[in-house]
Input
Amino acid sequence: MPRVLVTRRLPEGGLDPFVAAGYEIVQRDGDEPWPAADLCAAAAEVDAVVCVLTDRIDADVLRAGAPRLKVVANVAVGYDNVDVATASELGIAVCNTPGVLDETTADLAFLLLLAAARRTSDAEADLRQGRWTGFHIGDFLGVDVHGATLGVVGYGRIGQAVARRASGFGMEVLHHSRHDTGVPGWVADLDELLPRVDFVSLHVPLYDETRGLLDARRLALMKPSAVVVNTARGPVVDEEALAVALEDGTIFGAGLDVYEREPHVHPRLLAAPHAVLLPHIGSATEATRRRMAQLAAEGAVAVVRGERPPNLVVA
Ligand code: DGY
Output
């Protein structure tokens, strides 16, 4: 009987593909991260590992898992927590969850865009803390979303889903990606896009080239009324530079769901004006998280059967 190690509690129904395929499921009580040594020991005794983005599946875990371990299935579309190159050297497949979280994540990106533009976190906090003294014409003035220009950076499925939402708000949409998309609004050079837009929404995966993509120099290219939204990966933005840009008015606002060193949030960012900060909940709806878990599980079952699943990550 194949065995699968599932590192965390997953939404109900998420492990159905393993149950249907008759797997023995190895899981611990509780939902704490596995210490690295325990993860290595457990990986050696299973055919598949199902993990989440906070599990570091590095070369040590993969080497410990080989030769029995056949597949690592990450319950996330991003897989920067998995050493895909070493996995591929060892013949261990990696699966992720593309496609099933696009609309849910785009909803949240748009929520952050609206909330940062209209300063809703600050305004609600004021009300809840009893500081609201009534309507004041100059309170919590934000920037308009309708009719503004959005720059989508990374024009994959989620970026395109955000662009669709923007057109409903009468926004003009520009986008930047490494390769020409052939879609109107493509801007080859990110440095040229930034001064032209009122909002930037980031949708690039994290890899060496995108680490620190939005740094102090690039933030300085943006309009003082601009808003940055990040639902991709924290290290794509230089957090300290972003906090400084908000403090000194280089840009207007930011809506963030992801951080450089989660769950640590840069203290300057916590104190920065016009920042809406959420705890990595982009894909957090019951239906989407369940589907993500099932897709990861389906991929793992297919690999162990010797099949090539559609959600295989290619190194
Ligand atoms: C992902 O899938 O990569 C998100 O960050 C979590 O849903």
